[in-house]
Amino acid sequence: MKNTLLVVLLLLYSSAFIYSQVKEEEMVVNGLGLPENQDAENIYNRGVSFYKQKMFEDAIRSFDKAIQLKPNFDKAISNRGSIRYEAQDYKGALADFDAALAINPNNESALFGRANTYISTNNAEKAIIDLNNYIKLNANNSLGYYYRGTAKFSINNFEEALKDFDKSIELKSDFDYAFNDRASTKMKMQNIQGAISDYSKAVLLNPYFVIAYNNLGSAKMKNGDIKGAIEAYDNALKIDSKYYIALNNRGNAKYESGDYEGALKDFLEVVKIKDDYYFAYCNISSVKFKMKDYNGSIDASSKAIKLNPNYGAAYLNRGTAKEMVRDQIGACDDWDKAFKLGMSQAKNYLSECVQK
């Protein structure tokens, strides 16, 4: 049975790179004893207040006005970039972070924000450069190491990612996300017991960490503990009954345990929640094949193929089911397609087609 992705690397995108309000003692004072650019500072502080209230459009307008009054106001420019980042306007966010750093290369907020934007746009190498610089300025902040770890993970540099997650946890011993992502790194490095330990720590620190429960279940499946895996998926679903990934994974675990009725029930619930989740339709096909409902298996595989015409596992399943209803030509066509899509298992079936 084709499993879905088991390990989820969670990126915790935080608004931590928003500056807090400017303190009066930080303002430049002019010769009359009054703060220079007072209007810009006051408008800036209003923008920060709007941001904290999630009044983002008002915050943007305030930062725009502050920047008009004080064009080199790197903090305002950086904060505007942070709002654009949260709105997924990554192009606008990068432009603001670049501008802020052109004014002040040591603006920690802008370095951190630009790094996160690079991570979100799949540019891990540039993110790592910014995070290197951020860590030089802020060596005791666990978030810098954490995000650098996620960037390294994304380019499969697992050994270095592990070091960063280790450091992040050293600096913040209750960092649940770092434990989750370190566990995912250990999974990639085939340290299954270490992963189980870290996922367990993550849910101990945060009993509502639904993704960590799902990941714990998948690690236990990898370790052959089907009962423990189902228990972990159950815990995830108690928190979020609509979390279809955990529901699909629990169905996989039930399938492996021989509970085909239970597996089918889970997979059918998945497609009620997310009707375009082709993995689940392929899994329904596998269950129905085991239950000798070959036409039902064909139908489910066809639904998966309709949703993703390049999903080789669905062609493999459908071909096997077609063989059982004596549609040998259709079976061979599907196996051929599966093989072309990278399903090496189909080669064994294709040998039968050549012989016949």
Give the overall average pLDDT: 89
Helix and strand content put the structural class at: mainly alpha
Could you say what the CATH topology of the domain at 1-121 and 133-138 is called? Serine Threonine Protein Phosphatase 5, Tetratricopeptide repeat
- Let me know the CATH homologous superfamily of the domain at 1-121 and 133-138: Tetratricopeptide repeat domain
- The N- and C-terminal alpha carbons lie at a distance of 27 Å
Count of extended strands? 0
CATH class assignment of the domain at 1-121 and 133-138: Mainly Alpha
Low-confidence runs? 1-36
Give the second-level CATH assignment, the architecture of the domain at 1-121 and 133-138: Alpha Horseshoe
Shape estimate = elongated
Largest sheet: none
Helix content bin: over 70%
Q: Count every helix, treating DSSP H or I runs of 4 or more residues as helices.
A: 19
Strand content: under 5%
